[in-house]
Amino acid sequence: MTSLEAVAVHLPRHSEPVAGRLRAFGHSDQEIRHYRLYYGFSEIRVDHDRSMAEHLIAAGRGLTELRGQEHRVRYVLQAKTMPVSAPYPVNPLHEARAALGLTHAPAFSVSQQACASVLVCVELAGRMLAQDGDPDALALVFAGEKTFTDDARVLGATAVMGEGVVALLVRAGDTGRDRMLGYASRICGEFYRGSRMTDEDHERWAVRYPDVLVEVITAALDHAGLTIDDIRLILPHHVNQLSWRKVIKGLGLKNLDRLYLDNLSKLGHCFGADAFINYCSARADGRLTPGDRYLMTAVGLGATFSAMVFEH
């Protein structure tokens, strides 16, 4: 079993309206209105003056549980959506590892599942720690990126990308704050072109997307021995609200009450960090209490669908 020991979030202080970002990419006023009213995007957070490494370091230093426990960290992982987030030869992950006093721990990135890489990183970290056999060992996982390239700023007709980074402490076993109960993932390779899909691909993607995500969520619930009725809250990745309405209907839920959308309009899609940003907000809002079961989702271009079930 895998557990979350702690989660910290770093968000830039500066907010920008998505209208300016979309207009810069040639979107019309009517399209911008569509993004706002139907997709739900209003603002994004960005920090033009901070590097990727500085974002990672800020998130890592937000983990109060890490202070004085650096020696327990066995691995440092970065879940990446974009293959490039800094100019060559800069390595933000290695810079952050050094700044946090973790140079004794091997560091590597997982990127082939794009925004879904964060959930596989959590699962992978738990498996590696379990194989090592040290019950006190931890892994540090980062997710979230800079909007460094044009491809990283607007995701087709799906989302507007914002900056925000999470740092997670993962451990093997069930003694952490949140226990992982189930995980499922599915890759639909026919959509391998990602952001460069053809119009025909986009049409098929729009049809397949909600059905496949419902299938993966159901598989994760089955793995956990639960049903959707056992779930207190769904902590989603931030794609447009229209697609979520179809997913919620496919799950047999009558409304969006259990879907945590409080951050979508003001943060945009923060790559793989969304679900864990929502986790911290939901805890702060009192929406998660001890014993609650909740579900995280992530979908990466390429296309990987993932879901993970936890008990708080």
CATH-defined fold name of the largest domain: Peroxisomal Thiolase, Chain A, domain 1
Mean pLDDT: 92
Unreliable segments of 5+ consecutive residues: none
The helix count comes to 9
Reported CATH architecture of the largest domain:
3-Layer(aba) Sandwich
Structural class per helix/strand content? alpha+beta
- Read across the widest sheet, the strand sequence of neighbours is 5-4-6-9-1-10-13-12-11
CATH level 1 name of the largest domain: Alpha Beta
Q: Could you state the CATH homologous superfamily of the largest domain?
A: Thiolase/Chalcone synthase
C-alpha end-to-end distance: 14 Å
Provide tags for this entry.
alpha+beta, globular, Peroxisomal Thiolase, Chain A, domain 1, 2 domains, 13 strands, 312 residues, two-stranded antiparallel ribbon, nine-stranded mixed β-sheet, single chain, 9 helices
Describe this structure in words.
It is a single chain. By secondary structure, the chain is of the alpha+beta class. The protein folds into 2 domains: 2-172, Thiolase/Chalcone synthase (Peroxisomal Thiolase, Chain A, domain 1), CATH 3.40.47.10; 178-311, 3-Layer(aba) Sandwich (Peroxisomal Thiolase, Chain A, domain 1). The protein is built from 9 helices and 13 strands. The two termini are 14 Å apart. The model has no long low-confidence stretch (mean pLDDT 92).
